[in-house]
Amino acid sequence: MNSERYGVTEDGKPVVAYTLANTAGMRVCVLSLGCIIAHLEVPDREGNSANVVLGSDSVAGYLHRSPHFGAIAGRYANRIARGRFTIDGIDYQLETNAPPNTLHGGRHGFDKVVWQTESHDGEALVLRYLSPDGEEGFPGNLSVEVTYRLGAANDLRIDYSATTDKPTIVNLTNHSYFNLAGEGSGDVLNHIVSIAADHFTPIDATQIPTGEIRSVGETPFDLRQPTTIGERLRMADEQLLIARGYDHNWVLRTPAGNAPRHAARAFEPRSGRILDVLTDAPGLQFYTGNSLDGALVGPTGRAYRQSDGCCFETQRFPDAPNQPGFPSAVLRPGEHFRSTTIFRFSTDAT
Questions:
Q1: Which terminal CB of the chain, N or C, has fewer other CB atoms within 10 Å?
Q2: Strand 84-87 vs strand 102-103: parallel, antiparallel, or unpaired?
Q3: Which residues contact 255 (CB under 8 A, 6 or more apart)?
Q4: How much is the pTM?
Q5: Catalytic machinery residues
Q6: Residue 349's pLDDT band (boundaries 50, 70, 90)?
Q7: pLDDT tens readout for residues 265-293
Q8: What is the mean predicted confidence (pLDDT) over 48-61?
Q9: What are phi and psi of 51, to 5 degrees?
Q10: Residues 6+ away with beta carbon under 8 Å from 134
Q11: Is the dihedral of CA 267, 272, 273, 279 positive or negative?
């Protein structure tokens, strides 16, 4: 594993870039800032490699302009209604950084902090962060560990682990924006996607789940068979109009908590690249980069516009702390939060 200084934060903390590589032509660059996957290089069907994730070009870009490019989102990924939740009769109020709700842990979430490097070698990188009691309004000192491990078969495995000294809520995910044709190459509307889910959680006008778990049948959210993203993205469906595209939680088909199982696949026909997503999490947020508007420029100097990338955010359900019908997101002292997601890359030539 190679490491080099990437930059420095405004309060003087150095940011280090770590690069994992294998013999199959895959390279992953992870920053100590936010555990950000800044660069992910994989070969196409002809063996030509390209970076397949969107990103920023500087520490300042990631801190002030990035829509969570490649970062670990937390302490609670996704949305919490009105920034409020209750544990054991105690009410907590978070910063509502996406009014009227809290998004991805608040204004100073896990994507904005420099993580400590616990260990790194040729195959794995272990990063840790202690989120103090009261940070962004969340209770408890939360000790978090994230491990990136690159396998010989082009598997990028992410292991999440957390413990707390006070009852709290936890939801961790990686927020990489993928474009399998290559970063800055245009939109992902030609990507063919499937998601192993029979249900999804519809949202209200503020993008908070209504509490309903709705069948995907006869809706644009039926991605059980491979479907081109652009085929349905512009349909006049109420749910798509609210989010300006896909930005919803799919209820994954098989029970959570066991070994990682297949959750989603994306195929880009021009390059032949395939991304398979495996996870033990109960949900997956599929997001089509709806907020990208041309105002952000990537590391190769290309502006990012709507649908220039898509995210596969493995997760506990959005607003689960306020939804009694959703799987619990509460973590208590003595318990150990663990979750695993695998991004597996291949081509249609293999």
A1: C
A2: unpaired
A3: none
A4: 0.97
A5: 175, 313
A6: confident
A7: 999 999 999 999 999 999 999 999 999 99
A8: 97
A9: -75, 130
A10: none
A11: positive
